[in-house]
Amino acid sequence: MNLNFAVKQMKFRVNGIINNKLMLMKIKYILCYPILASILLLACSAPRMVNLDPITIVENSKGALVYRGSYTQTTDIINTRLDLSFDWDSAYVIGKATILAKPYFYPSDQLVLNANGFRLNSVSLVNGDDMKPLRYTYNGKLLTISLDKIYTRDQKYTIFIDYVAMPNKLKVGEDIASAGDRGIYFINRDGKDKGKPRQIWTQGETECNSNWFPTINGSQEKMTQELNITVPNEFVSLSNGTLEFSSMNGDGTRTDSWRQEQPHSTYLTMLAVGDFVITRDTWRDKEVSYYTEPAYASTAKLVFGKTPEMMEFFSNKLGIEYPWDKYSQIVVRDFVSGAMENTTASVFFEGLNMSEGQYLDENYEDIIAHELFHHWFGNLVTAESWANLPLNESFATYGEYLWDEYKYGRDQADLKGFEDMSVYISNKRKPEPDVIRFDYSDREQMFDEISYHKGGRILHMLRKTVGDEAFFESLKLYLNRHTYKTAEIHELRLAFEEITGMDLNWFFNQWFLASGHPVLSIQNSYDPLKREINVNIRQNQNLSETPLYRIPMAIDIYTGTKVERKEIILERQNQSFIFPSLSPPDLVNVDAEKYILAEKNEVKNMQEYIFQYQNAPLFMDRIEAIMKLKDMKEEAAARKVMVSAFKDKNWFVRHTALSVIENLSDDERKAVHQTLQDLATKDKVSQVRAAAVEKLGKYYRMTDNREVFDQTAKDKSPIVIRATTAVKK
Predict the structure, then answer these.
(1) Which residue in 246, 173, 231, 176 sits closest to 209, CA to CA?
(2) Which one of 3, 225, 256, 392 has the lowest number of neighbouring Cβ atoms within 10 Å?
(3) Common-topology check for domains 72-180+205-269 and 517-603
(4) To which H or E segment does residue 404 belong?
(5) Angle 410-426/619-630 helices, nearest 10 degrees?
(6) Within a 10 A sphere around the Cβ of 45, how many other Cβ atoms?
(7) Could you tell me the pLDDT band of residue 491, with boundaries at 50, 70 and 90?
């Protein structure tokens, strides 16, 4: 899913920044990243909260004898047809399931299905037009059907099940882990809440779809499907695949018939019902559509309108055209996660019901890109087990980076990478789990900052290690080789090794199959007699729990107007690198590409950080320098550079630099007053405008800012208006 740390990477942001990422759509809590908190005080002051049911997960102790492998496949579901109607009063799903199946490999005379909390009316074998009742046992969770004979893997059979699903009767802690696991939800079903529409929607990941139709749980089971959904005439329905036809029933209801002919995992089956307006778009010859409540139809294309461009970009970048029949996106109420990448029909939480002003503050474009990228990584090729979930979520997280890089440039993409790294590094779980891990206590543990943020950064390091061309050719091979199938982490490695000709076990072992990250101490010195630079790097991580890393990286040496790049490989605990230099360097920039996922303690003085800000080319160079200079605000030279950063090309650097205002002398404040007013009224990013308003109100009380505040009070951005209201009090 998209965001899910405890409930699916729901990447939940505050005021457009990332302060809160219920991320990983499974994160049922909100975190204000410690590394960013001091910078984003304004944004953190008014977080938008999503109330989700809390969950309690107990980590396994290190070395616990738990192994969560792939599920054994005994039956292969080929196709599922569901004929569905709904009892809104009772929140019942009245269903008829027709399942075409066969034994996976070994002969079998039974079919075992997950069906949680059903009332079963009949179970039959379909033989042409005839129905033959079958014997079965049912314990409330598993339906075990005795077939009429032993079938081989070359023999198909069709089972018909007449049932009623009762999701609201499932007991938390007994039938389901939390109220967020019901699988299907009836919103305002009695219509008494006048401020909320009546809706039905589903959420299947991880194993919740078996709460509303009989199936086989797990990511490994793939099928095609048909859903015939009977709804009141005034409502719209949505499901996977395409709408084949609609039939009027003459009783105020209509049956919509949806079909998807490409196989996908059973957890990706979805439906939604409600009063939605469909805003239609296209990509190449395929339908693209946005389902919103009528009140938000006017901004649907503003919010989702970049989708066709994303589809074109991802298709071209991966060398594989968007592989599904259509793509719909729907915004629902009270969603249990941030978003979910159901095949051809992604669901989003109500935060994407936005006005034009709200869109300025947080457009959730990252979530939109994340769910779309899943349609290659997660839907087309699916992790074969929950232990391999990073094959879904790490890629979808990195899809956000790729989109930002393409659309907005590397600066903005590296900000995204910085955010992801900050989320991961700031989480100090002990012991830290491996990225690919088979010892989780609960599969929901897989939806965390490891699978999302850390995994996305690992993919970026892999890209930097093998180079762009090899990286995307390897992804293309991986996707083609496993199209409409499942895969595990070793198959990703083998694809990279086949393309590059390299043995990459060392990379996958230390990053995907182990825990932790490097903790580096970095210092350099210049010997004027030997005329050489000594760069010493020490790995300080706990080697009893974390690998000794092999890290290829670049070091840029700046001397005057000359920059020379040195390629090194760090592979020892304490390693020195000697470079000849006729004169002392102005800057030694270790990890010059700024892509290593690590905690770094680097010894540099103020002049080196000033030089770094003014001369090194990357966003990470500049934000690193500004954050260090922030700690040197007593020095006039450091304050001067921070003031110059008010005009940095990256909004986050500008926002960060504004913290220097409180340390400026009276004369320095007077000198930047006009610049601050310009930022409050003219900056392109609302977070910066709001921060400038806050600074004007706090540190320029004796100055006449009424004209500025009159202008910002009319800003289209809600956070700028709120900031103005606060300073006027």
Answers:
(1) 176
(2) 256
(3) yes
(4) helix 390-408
(5) 50
(6) 16
(7) very high
Mean pLDDT of 375-381: 98
Spatial CB neighbours of 129, under 8 Å, sequence gap ≥ 6: none
- Please state which CATH number belongs to domain 517-603: 2.60.40.1840
Spatial CA neighbour of 574 closest among 501, 504, 522, 645 = 522
Whether residue 333 is predicted with pLDDT greater than 60 in this model: the reply is: yes
Closest-CA residue to 319 (of 118, 477, 152): 477
Reduced to 3 states, what is the DSSP secondary structure of residue 64? coil
3-state secondary structure 486-549: EECHHHHHHHHHHHHCCCCHHHHHHHCCCCCCCEEEEEEEEECCCCEEEEEEEECCCCCCCCCC
pLDDT value of residue 66: 86
How many Cα neighbours within 13 Å face the side chain of 662? 8
* CA gyration radius, the chain: 28
Percent of the chain residues past pLDDT 90, beyond the cut: 90
Rounded distance, CA 77 to CA 97, Å?
A: 12
Q: Which helix (H) or strand (E) holds 347?
A: strand 345-348
Site of tokens 């003085």: 605
CA–CA separation, 267 and 4 (whole Å)? 15
Closest C-alpha among 451, 444, 452, 485 to residue 206: 444
Asked if the model's pLDDT at residue 45 lies above 70, the reply is no
Is the Cα torsion angle 372, 376, 382, 387 positive or negative in sign?
Answer: negative
Contact 371/44 with Cβ under 8 angstroms? no
Distance of CA 73 to the CA centre of its chain: 29
Gap between the Cα atoms of 555 and 564, Å rounded: 8
Q: What are phi and psi of 651, to 5 degrees?
A: -65, -35
CB 269 within 8 A of CB 213: yes
Residue 581, CA distances (Å) to 147, 204, 565, 576, 592 in order: 80, 61, 13, 16, 18
CATH superfamily of 72-180+205-269: tricorn interacting facor f3 domain (2.60.40.1730)
Residue type (1 letter), 711: Q
Q: How far apart are CA 173 and CA 24, in angstroms?
A: 23
Give SS3 for 58: coil
**Helix (DSSP H) and strand (DSSP E) numbers for the chain:** 20, 31
Q: Which residues of 556-590 are buried (b: 16+ CB within 10 A; e: fewer)?
A: bbbbeeebeebebebeeeeeebebebeeebbbbbb
Parallel/antiparallel/unpaired status of strands 199-202 and 271-274: antiparallel
Q: Any idea what DSSP says for residue 430?
A: S
As a whole number, mean pLDDT of residues 242-251 equals: 98
SS3 readout for 227-269: EEEEEECCCEEEECCEEEEEEECCCCEEEEEEEEEEEEEHHHC
Q: Provide DSSP, 646-667.
A: GG-SSHHHHHHHGGGGGG--HH
Ranges of each domain in the chain: 72-180+205-269, 517-603
pLDDT at 477 > cutoff 50: yes
- Global confidence as pTM: 0.93
Residue 100 has pLDDT above 80, yes or no: yes
Give the whole-angstrom CA distance, residue 508 versus residue 504: 6
What burial class does residue 49 get, using C-beta atoms within 10 Å of its C-beta: 0-12 exposed, 13-18 middle, 19+ buried? exposed
